[in-house]
Amino acid sequence: MPHPKLPVAVHVLLLRGDEVLLVRRCNTGFEDGRLSVVAGHVEPGESVTQAALREASEEVGVALSRDGLRVVGVMHRRSQEERVDFFLAYRLGSDGGEPANREPEKCSELLWANLASLPDDTIPYVRAGIENFRNGVWFQEFGWEPVWSNDAVQPTGARDARPGG
Hints:
By secondary structure, this protein is of the alpha+beta class. The protein contains two helices and eleven strands. The protein has helices at residues 48-60, 124-135, and strands at 8-16, 19-25, 35-36, 38-41, 70-78, 82-91, 107-114, 139-142, 147-149, 152-154, 157-158. A hairpin with a 2-residue loop joins strand 1 and strand 2 (19-25). The longest helix is centred in the N-terminal third of the chain and has 13 residues, at 48-60. It starts with 7 loop residues before the first strand and ends in a 7-residue tail after the last strand.
């Protein structure tokens, strides 16, 4: 049986204090009108980190340093297709520049939102990824059926990979 080939994407949490930069999608055919973070697919031959650096530059014009970028979560997600999403965080300072909308054909606005009170129209899996980051949860299966064990339904959602978690 052949191994599945899953799309891999990066989602960059650009942070300023207690806020995260959100982008309103438009004209993409996926979740248009809803809020996400800077994100995109990992291209062939590109690492997750390289993709995150590229997407931040392309979408909002910020030059991030590799040293300041850290992977804060992974999501095995099922929506229209099965995929793997990496969530990376970066604290903006004076070194990377102020974010600006560099893709107005795909993004109708940028806005800063408090990490603890995201707007209602944030894409659900993006909201889950941000909440996982806030709660120190590193891995989540999203969009899958509940797992049955010992005649009880185990919750879907975040599965804490920390010892004792």
